[in-house]
Amino acid sequence: MSDMGLVVVGAAGRMGQVLLRTVHAMEGVRVVGAIERTGSPHLGKDAGELTGIGIINVEITDDPLAAFAKADGVLDFTVPAATVEFAGYAAQARIAHVIGTTGCSADDDARIAAAARHATIVKSGNMSLGVNLLAVLVEKAAQALGPDDFDIEILEMHHRHKVDAPSGTALLLGEAAAHGRKIALAEKSVRVRDGHTGVRETGTIGFATLRGGSVVGDHSVILAGTGERITMSHQAEDRSIFARGAVKAALWAHGRKPGLYSMRDVLGL
After folding, report:
1. C-alpha to C-alpha distance for 105 and 111, rounded to whole angstroms
2. Residue range 203-207: average pLDDT?
3. Do 159 and 211 touch, CB atoms closer than 8 A?
4. β-strand 217-225 against 150-158: which pairing, if any?
5. Rounded distance between C-alpha atoms, residue 257 and residue 95, angstroms
6. What is the pLDDT of the chain when averaged over all its residues?
7. What per-residue confidence (pLDDT) applies to 1?
8. Which of 6, 166, 191, 219 has the fewest CB atoms within 10 Å around its CB?
9. Which CB contacts under 8 angstroms, 24+ apart, belong to 55-63?
10. Any idea which residues carry the catalytic annotation?
């Protein structure tokens, strides 16, 4: 069987370069396309040369349609507006679309779900094995330890350049906790506390966001009871964990029927 051909969008960005290096190093996959925005100074350059892995004869372009037409899948850690557009192109090409983009609105998610009628889409707030295992544990803990006895708070920290908050991973963990409690996160989440807030409402799930430095991603889920506290944490030390997870998702999705899947599906959790 020939290697799965993958396109990396946002190829010149921090995560895009990690994805290019990861695909180049892993078995069963190869880079067949690299996309950047129109006007990028990196257009026309060889994607491998840009990332320091040597010439791979894949030119960075701003034409996703042409790149998708000769690919088996696309790896996408960009921004919501671009991801929605790429989902449409993936649907036209009938290829796998792995989405690690965070900050999507409800309308963005609806448009991605519509594209999944024709494309095999794997979308997750975090692509790492560790985080997705943590989400399963959080769900079980939230189910076992009820809201009358344990409050749930989620703390996350990322580098100074991250533009969305709470992080996609924090929301993924919040959804896991809400699912364990059989509640809707949108109705029970507390994103901001400032001033005289009054006492904590029973059954809510709180989020706290920190930004600074070069932190790749730290997440903690705290279940706070009377006289005891449980903390479950994950520290991401290298972006390559997300890239390896994304490639694993692409390989899993290759040849699978269209639909919207998660990393839990990929990992069988």
Report:
1. 10
2. 98
3. yes
4. antiparallel
5. 10
6. 96
7. 61
8. 191
9. 56/24, 56/31, 58/31, 58/32, 58/33, 58/34, 59/34, 60/11, 60/12, 60/34, 60/35, 60/36, 61/33, 61/34, 61/35, 61/36, 62/35, 62/36, 62/37, 62/38, 63/35
10. 158, 162
